[in-house]
Amino acid sequence: MRRDILPAGAALMLFGATDASAQALRSAQDAQIDLFVRNRAVAVRDRPQPAYDPLGLRVGGFTAFPRLRSGVVHDDNVFAAEDDRQPATTLRLTPEVVVRSHWSRHALETRARADIDRNLDFDSENTTDWSLGGAGRLDVARGVDITFSADYAHDHEARTAAGADPAPRRPIAFDLASASLAAMRTRGRLRLSAKAAVLRYDYRDGLNDAGAVIEQDDRDRTVVRLTGRADYALSPATALFVQVARDDRDYRKVAGSPERSSSGHEALAGVDFELGALIRGEVAAGYIRQEFRNTAYGDLDGFGGRARLSWFPTQLTTLTAIAARSVEDSGVIGSAGALRTDLSISVDHELLRNLIVTAEAAWSDDDYNGLDRTDTRFAAGFSGIYRLNRRYGLTAGLTYLDQSSSGAVAGPSYRSSRLSVAVVSQF
To answer: Which helix (H) or strand (E) holds 231?
Structure first.
């Protein structure tokens, strides 16, 4: 570190600035400070690596980033079965392209992606998923911006998804269309934001081993979410906030199936903070309530909240802990929703400049509404990313999942381990 740098005040005196002009300059500098930016430390996975980051293909005011991931996945319990565990190996191909603008104001991004799985042991596990989407930011004025996004995806429900039905011959497929619009205004110590989002799910019927149809139309739904938030900065490192949200979940009405539609409310108060370059986080607590139109289900309500804490013991290590409590939709027959508690912790370490290793563990608990059933899931994993150069890299990971279910109508309990290896090409 250089020791010959003059303090700001000494520099002004050196160039003959008056006290008034010095005060004016300090005021101008203070006006440039964003009291809500938390960037004194950079997470390991977020840190730029100029020697290894892709350059992209520049076209006019845009840059395209093509990417191809080719890998193999081995699962020792591909059907997530309790007893008859079947191992299987899957070849996975994931092409993707992201196009970003590099304008001085405003921003626009589009993306396209496909996930192609071909199972070498069971044709029923072959899937082809894809998604298209885009997002943008409109800089209206200083401290005022509007963001928007729209996505459409054809996806499937994994055998190991929370609440997944083990009976279908093939994984259940669905389409998801979503759009959101958000606005934010920052003025001095106050920041106001609002967001509206719409999601529409359309599920495909499945078949069981006997060829009978497994009805999925009663899971089709449209979800509308409105969120408002106000932050007040106590200092450049701390801000208090309150957030309120409402959601309406409108399920498709199917003859012979119970009404599953509901409306929910959430009110949270919390703090967003940064302790030097050591700890950064956001913690909020409050109340959540989900009211169902069908009174037979009863309502879900109680403590709600979320927390995310990042600890940076060194510049090469990032430890992140996350907790949340929320109401989730349920695919379980006879249940309208579940009160979910999530806890997770992960550690990212830059072992070498081009080698990042990650260890993580997660625990979740789903308490289903309308059923005497509780699912508890524990997952743990270890993975690594090795960058050969700017264009090529290797990834590998090992994950373990243990689901246990209890209650009068308990679901499946099983264990599953997956080993994956992939080559990544990017430009």
So the answer is: strand 221-235
203 C-beta neighbours (distance < 10 Å), count: 20
Look at residue 220 and give its three-state secondary structure.
coil
**Distance between CA atoms of residues 140 and 235, nearest Å:** 26
Q: How far is CA 353 from CA 44, 135, 311, 320, 388, in A?
A: 10, 31, 20, 20, 11
Separation between Cα atoms, residue 309 and residue 319, nearest integer Å: 8
Strands 190-203 and 206-207: unpaired
Q: Block means of pLDDT (10 residues each) for the chain, length 427 residues? A: 35 36 39 77 91 92 97 97 94 98 94 98 97 96 94 96 89 97 95 98 92 90 98 96 97 87 96 95 96 88 94 96 94 85 98 96 94 95 96 98 94 96 96
Cβ-defined contacts of 259-262 (< 8 Å, 24+): 259/292, 259/293, 259/294, 260/218, 260/221, 260/292, 260/294, 260/297, 260/336, 260/337, 261/221, 261/292, 261/293, 261/294, 262/290, 262/291, 262/292, 262/293, 262/336, 262/337
Length of the chain: 427
Contact 139, 145 (CB under 8 A): yes
Task: Quote the CA–CA distance of 170 and 211 in Å, as a whole number.
Answer: 11
CB 420 within 8 A of CB 88: no
Q: Is the four-CA dihedral 327, 329, 335, 340 of positive or negative sign?
A: negative
Distances (CA, A) of 195 to 180, 198, 204, 323: 7, 10, 30, 22
Instruction: Strands of 370-413 (E only): list them.
Output: 374-387, 392-406
Which one-letter amino acid corresponds to residue 155? D
